[in-house]
Amino acid sequence: MVLVGTAAVLVAPHLGVPMFLYPWLGLGLCAAMLRMQRLRFADTGFSWRCFRAVPLLIGAVLGLAYAAINVQLIGPLLAHVLGERLDLSDFAFVRAHLSGFVLALVLAWVIGGFYEELVFRGFLHTMLMLHLPRVPTRSAWAVALTALVFAAYHLQFGPFGVANALVFTLFAAAVRQRWQRNLWVVISFHACVDMTTFTLMRWGYL
User: Fold this and answer.
1) What are phi and psi of 89, to 5 degrees?
2) pLDDT digits (tens, 9 = 90+) for 142-188
3) What is the CA radius of gyration of the chain?
4) What is the Cα–Cα distance from 114 to 175, expressed in whole angstroms?
5) How far apart are CA 55 and CA 32, in angstroms?
6) Distance between CA atoms of 115 and 108, rounded to whole angstroms?
7) Crossing angle between the packed helical segments 158-178 and 53-69, to the nearest 10 degrees
8) How many CA atoms lie within 13 A of 62 on its CB side?
9) Which DSSP category does 83 fall into?
10) Chain segment 95-117, per-residue pLDDT in tens
11) Average pLDDT of 134-149?
């Protein structure tokens, strides 16, 4: 049942479920599956009480640093290896209109930061840690499997998008492991990476 629910959460955005609807659907399913395991989102490291300036600032600084490394090093290296760059045609609205840019910044927090981190580094990582065999490498397996699922979640962006998502999720996993009891750090990290990317698009650097 947990596997079926998890699959539904991951494929919903790719089946035409509206953007304003699938986060509610996904988080609702995650909450239901956590309850089946007698858990809550608090057990994944997420709590509204931890929504404070310091964790958000730490995530923001790390996110800006990663975005700079991604633009200057990771992106060009992947482009050289794969022989292609990221297709940004789906984000033409960011450059076309100021309202589109503002919308993208909001989505960076609501979808990229909040929703995706609760689903992947929160729910999925916790479920894997709960159900994988209790061996010394269990945490590494949970990180690796979460990374692969997160990368596959970005298939619509082609080989470059998948590879870039895979590299990103390894850094996000490191942030999550360092601040295990406060998911807001990695939420802020993810959101600020996306916000920086959208800002560079808007200014014509991407």
Assistant:
1) -60, -30
2) 999 999 999 988 888 889 999 999 999 999 999 999 999 999 999 99
3) 17
4) 15
5) 27
6) 10
7) 140
8) 23
9) S
10) 888 999 999 999 999 999 999 99
11) 92
Closest to 71 (Cα-Cα) out of 175, 186, 167:
167
Residue with tokens 């304003």: 20
The full DSSP string for 133-195 is ---TTHHHHHHHHHHHHHHHTTGGGHHHHHHHHHHHHHHHHHHHHHTTT-THHHHHHHHHHHH
3-state secondary structure 95-132: HHCHHHHHHHHHHHHHHHHHHHHHHHHHHHHHHHHHHC
Distance CA 34, CA 41 (A): 7
Long-range contact pairs involving 66-71 (C-beta distance under 8 Å, separation at least 24) = 66/168, 66/171, 66/189, 66/193, 67/192, 67/193, 67/196, 67/197, 67/200, 68/196, 70/164, 70/167, 70/168, 70/193, 70/197, 71/200, 71/205, 71/206
Q: What's the chain's length in residues? A: 206
